[in-house]
Structure formats: C-alpha cells, structure tokens
Write a sequence for this structure.
C-alpha cells in the first residue's frame, strides 16, 4: 500500500490522502485496517453476536469481496475471523472524539462523447459532537469532513476502482470502477433529515457501504439495478439516494428502493425525493429547512439544457450551486467521474478567504488502474 498526502495540510480545513492498495481482497482489508488504526486508533468493537453472524453470512453470499476484506481486518488485529462478538467493519479514519448536488451528462449530451457525473459534496464544517450530539467539540476533535481519503484499490481478481470517502475507509461517497460504472450518494430528504438515534449495524448494506458494493460487484447499470433490488440495505435514520451511471450512457437514481431512469437525457439530483417532485419546472419554493435543494436543482436543470456540455461546462454548472462562506455548510469537494476514461477528478476545500470567499485546491486526477 502507498499513502500520499495530495492536498491541504494541518493548517487548512482539509488534509487529503490518497491510498493505493493492491493484492487480493484479504490483503486490501488488512492494509485499510492498519491505516484506520494508525490514523485514528480504530479497533473492532463489540457487537450483537446474532446480528454479526447474520451479517457475515450475508456478506459471504452476496458481497464476497467485502467478506474477504473483513478476514484481512481480523488478521491486522491478530483476531480469529470467525469471532462473532466483534464488528470488523466501519473503518473510521477520523480521529475520535450533507446536502449535495449532482449532474449526470450522458455521452450523447457531451461535446467529446464522454459520459460524466459532476457533483458537489456539501457538508457542515462541524465535528461529530456538534452535529450528532448537539454538544461542544471536545479538545482536539476535528470536523467530520476535514480528513477525506481518495482510495484506489486494485485487486488481483475483480474490479479496480477509485473512490472518495469522508471518513469510512470501507465505504465511499463517490466512486468509479474500471468498467466505467460510477456512483455518488446524496441526502434524499434534507427537509426531514435528523441525526441518527443509533448507529447499530444491521444485516445488509449500510448507507455508505452501498456505493462500494455496487462498484465491487457490477459493471453496468442493469447489473446495478438487479444487485440493489436483491440486496438488503438500511440507513441510520438519514435516508440517502444514489446517482449511478455507466460507460454506455445509461443512468438511474436509486431512491427508497425505487428506480428513476434517466433515459438518454441529463439527470440532476440534489436533496429532495425525486419521485415526489418528478418535474423540475414544478418544484416548490425553498424555505429555511431545505438548504436550497429546489433552487439548486432548477439551476442545474437549466444548465443541462445547454447541451452539448464540455467537461468545463459541467464543472461550471456545479460551481454555480456550490455552497459559499455565507452558508452554514461548505462544498467540501467537487468531483467529476468520467465513465469513458474511468477516472475521477476532484478539487478540495481548504478554507475561507478574508474577503468572504472560499479556497480550493487545483484539480487532481485519478485513474482506476494507475498503471494503465
């Protein structure tokens, strides 16, 4: 495994690392566990034995890549992988104690024939204590979004991928695999979002595991639809929806077990249920509880009509709806996932300027197979 600091620093809001991990899934899991232990002191935690046995059986049958990585996590801590009293996943790399916008441009609507998802990952600049518990940050506690990772995994067998994650090394928020399948997650109903009452794990896929599951097991949209319809999945009281697209130009939004097909047109997603508001021209007005979700989608919808869109035009549309220093949250990164080139390009938030603006890194580009 290689670990490189690629953006920001201790005096910036974000410090971003890029991990490249090669080998079989066992070795990948062991390497990620060691990184989580080194960066945050993470360790397996006690869990309900009945639930753990069922979770591991589900992973072994439906997500064997993850199951093999969990064996590697156990090895990193010199544990018996068959122990059922410990939870081996949830590799949080944030030292202990989102509204978003996305636009899919299919190949037919791009100036160069490349399908792309562009997205803003919007999140509060607060700590876990402040967001989840309504308490003051403890001494030394970092903001939740301050230490993101870009992770490239190149398994001996299976699909290579590059992802961005805010904190959990075995999940992700954005990603693309070597088959050209791309996925991003967004809060599905920001008006009714609330901090989860419990983070108890259940059988199936958690919210941030779902994108990684799709990238590990699927090569195209049709496979992703079938896999998600067959999978068990759960959230922690804050439902998400997911924009998924492939190299052929197909795309859909997965929302509360509903499939919303994009057809051959651009698809805009922000933070309200699309199945309740299918027509962008008939969206209601925003209020204090909606974090501009309707206005952001209207803007993206209008920009999508300007097709064909270049890569820069797509990024420009996302800049129009980015959260600035006048908001309670920030666009903590902007990414572009190119399904043709199988690449992920991102720029990261570093902090605010004295003039009331925001500072970002330049664009950094990552391939799913760095040697290809």
């Amino acid at each position: 495994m290689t670990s490189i600091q690629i953006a920001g620093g201790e005096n910036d809001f974000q410090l971003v690392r890029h991990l490249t991990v090669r080998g079989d899934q066992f070795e990948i899991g062991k390497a990620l566990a060691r990184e989580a232990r080194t960066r945050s002191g993470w360790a397996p935690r006690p869990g309900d034995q009945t639930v753990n046995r069922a979770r591991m059986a589900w992973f072994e049958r439906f997500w064997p890549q993850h199951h093999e990585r969990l064996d590697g996590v156990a090895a990193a801590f010199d544990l018996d992988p068959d122990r059922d009293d410990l939870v081996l996943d949830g590799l949080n790399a944030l030292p202990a104690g989102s509204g978003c916008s996305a636009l899919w441009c299919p190949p037919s609507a791009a100036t160069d024939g490349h399908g792309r998802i562009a997205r803003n990952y919007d999140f509060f600049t607060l700590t876990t204590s402040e967001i989840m518990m309504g308490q003051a940050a403890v001494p030394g506690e970092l903001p939740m979004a301050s230490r993101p990772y870009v992770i490239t995994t190149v398994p001996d067998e299976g699909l290579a991928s590059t992802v961005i994650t805010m904190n959990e090394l075995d999940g992700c928020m954005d990603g693309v695999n070597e088959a050209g399948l791309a996925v991003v997650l967004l809060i599905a109903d920001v008006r009714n979002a609330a901090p989860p009452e419990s983070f108890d794990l259940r059988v199936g896929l958690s919210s941030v595991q779902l994108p990684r599951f799709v990238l590990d097991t699927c090569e195209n949209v049709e496979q992703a639809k079938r896999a998600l319809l067959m999978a068990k999945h759960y959230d922690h009281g804050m439902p998400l929806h997911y924009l998924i697209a492939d190299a052929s130009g197909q795309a859909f939004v997965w929302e509360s077990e509903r499939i919303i097909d994009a057809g051959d047109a651009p698809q805009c997603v922000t933070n309200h249920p699309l199945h309740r508001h299918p027509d962008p021209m008939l969206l209601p007005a925003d209020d204090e509880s909606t974090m501009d979700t309707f206005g952001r989608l209207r803007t993206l919808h209008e920009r999508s009509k300007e097709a064909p869109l270049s890569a820069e035009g797509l990024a420009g549309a996302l800049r129009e709806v980015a959260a600035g220093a006048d908001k309670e949250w920030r666009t903590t990164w902007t990414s572009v996932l190119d399904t043709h080139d199988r690449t992920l390009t991102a720029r990261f938030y570093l902090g605010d300027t004295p003039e009331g603006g925001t500072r970002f890194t330049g664009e950094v580009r990552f391939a799913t197979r760095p040697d290809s």
Observations:
- The domain at 95-367 is CATH 3.60.60.10 (Penicillin V Acylase; Chain A).
- The first helix runs from residue 25 to 40.
